[in-house]
Amino acid sequence: MADVSEGGAIESRARRLRLAATLRRLRDLSGLSGRELAQRIQISQSKVSRIESGATMPSLPEVQRWASAVEAPLDTRERLFDLTQAAMYETHAWRSALQSRPHLQDDFYERESAVRLIRNFQCAVVPGLLQTAAYARAVFSLANQPYEKEALAGATASRLFRQEALYEGDRRFDFLITEAALRWRPGSLPLSLAQLDRITSVSTLDNVSIGLIPHGRQSVVLPLHGFVLYGDVYADDEDADTFVEVETSHAKLTITDADITLYEKQWSLLTNMAIFDDAARGFLTELATEVRHEMS
Q: pLDDT digit string (tens) for 144-178?
């Protein structure tokens, strides 16, 4: 993935707003009300409003149905589809984002607060919502963009604040973590032991599912990186937005188009490889025992 700048992120937002304005203009020209259009393309009127304001990114099939409903000319449809494809991905460079603020944990908090279901797969590191304070501080210390002392403290505290959401019973958090991520050590042996105990404790919450993928499991999918799925059809709002975020070394990629299906499929396959509940807690106990033996 090519390096990006803050200007690239601004351009991504601008493309989405251009798409929103174009869709709104086409509906106005057709004479259809928001309610009438919603009925024709089989989404809610509220989602039509969110799309036209730029708050929600429509899928390509929704844009295709929109164009048909307003009887857009062929050349207009082609431009509309090109604009949709260009607006579907947003890339935000860590370096640029951190120039204007000490850390980005508040951004993660806002995204997490907007959905009822979060599914998080990590193959290299324990998910942030499960990290102890010491583990989180160690992770931030190893980041490609080094944190100043005050920023490090603020980022760590904000990450722990985000974890309060785990105790909201009306929300759902599903985690899949590989054995490699569990064994990765960003700090001392006591730090790793405390982190394993933390995962075990959180796994007992009714609204939290923690699946572990041991090394010995036969792979049925090639996960090249971790990812987080926000939102799902289980939400009360059938039009609830679903999107995926992927973190790379230099930037964060937000995916809102049909490629979400790819990540949904990967999640399903990875879930089939994982162990849960008592089996997972037993596995964590075995790993903790290994750490204690190293400490003795």
A: 766 778 889 999 999 999 999 999 999 999 999 99
Same domain, 127 and 256: yes
pTM: 0.73
Mark whether 151 and 271 lie in a shared domain: yes
Q: Which of 87, 113, 147 is the last residue of a domain?
A: 87
The residue ranges of DSSP E strands in 61-190, in sequence order, are 89-93, 117-122, 172-178
**Backbone dihedral angles phi then psi of residue 174, each to the nearest 5 degrees:** -115, 130
Do the Cβ atoms of 39 and 47 come closer than 8 Å? no
31: left (phi over 0), alpha (psi -120 to 50) or beta: left
Question: Could you list the residue range(s) of the whole structural domain that residue 11 is in?
Answer: 6-87
pLDDT digits (tens, 9 = 90+) for 227-260: 999 986 455 555 556 788 888 777 677 777 667 8
Q: Cα separation of 41 and 69, whole Å?
A: 7
| 267, 232 contact by CB (below 8 A) | no
Phi, psi of 208 (to 5 degrees): -120, 130
Cross-strand pairs, 228 = 120, 245
**Contact in structure between 211 and 276 (CB atoms under 8 Å):** yes
Helices and strands per DSSP (H, E), number in the chain: 13, 7
Angle ∠(277,241,108) on CA atoms, nearest 5: 65
Query: Which is it for strands 89-93 and 117-122: parallel, antiparallel or unpaired?
Result: unpaired
